[in-house]
Design a protein that fits this description.
The chain is 6% helix and 61% strand. The chain is built from two helices and ten strands, in the order ααββββββββββ. Strands 1-2-3-4-5-6-7-8-9-10 form a ten-stranded antiparallel β-barrel. The longest helix has 7 residues. The radius of gyration is 16 Å and the shape is globular. The N terminus is likely disordered.
């Protein structure tokens, strides 16, 4: 059975993922047009920023280039382009211009955990922060991302976003 047939078989009639059979494959999920919405909460749980994003991905073999364009509620716009590579056995690496070094992660079933330091502009200067991301495939066309953000090991906040396919489905 092909990988795509196995993936299709793991989605039930309601579109919900079968926890035992679905494996997240970033190079498949991000191939095409997606939308995201999310928020940043401070360490006390207060929402500090909300955002929407347009996400597009183009796959070439086991590599995918993902472009994110964030629109924050306060009017700020930010963009990031990731180059993500699948290395087999659920291992992924990713690079972006503001990520320091290489993001590394591992997929286990429907979940990917990866971490990276990043320089983000805050208040007119770059802050070096550490992101510990967990992505979970919640259904066939939605991915939930929760990221713990720290500086010097101390909590700065949490980012939570839902990334969903637009009406332009996978090719």
């Amino acid at each position: 059975m092909s990988d795509s047939a196995q993936h299709s078989d793991a989605i039930d009639a309601t579109g919900a993922a079968d926890n035992d059979n679905v494996e997240l494959r970033l190079e498949e999920f991000f191939d095409g047009s997606l939308e995201a919405e999310g928020e940043f909460r401070d360490p006390f749980g207060r929402v500090r920023r909300t955002f929407n994003a347009k996400v597009t991905g183009k796959r070439t073999g086991d590599t995918i280039r993902v472009h994110e364009k964030f629109h924050y509620h306060d009017g700020e716009i930010d963009e990031r382009e990731w180059l993500i590579r699948a290395h087999g056995e659920g291992r992924y690496t990713g690079q972006a211009s503001d990520v320091i070094g290489i993001a590394e992660g591992t997929v286990e079933g429907r979940r990917l955990r990866w971490s990276y330091p990043i320089d983000l502009p805050i208040g007119g200067r770059a802050w070096r922060l550490k992101f510990e991301d967990e992505f979970e495939l919640s259904e066939a066309d939605a991915l939930i991302n929760t990221a713990s953000v720290t500086k010097f090991g101390l909590p700065v906040g949490t980012v939570r976003q839902t990334i969903s396919r637009t009406s332009q489905k996978r090719r």
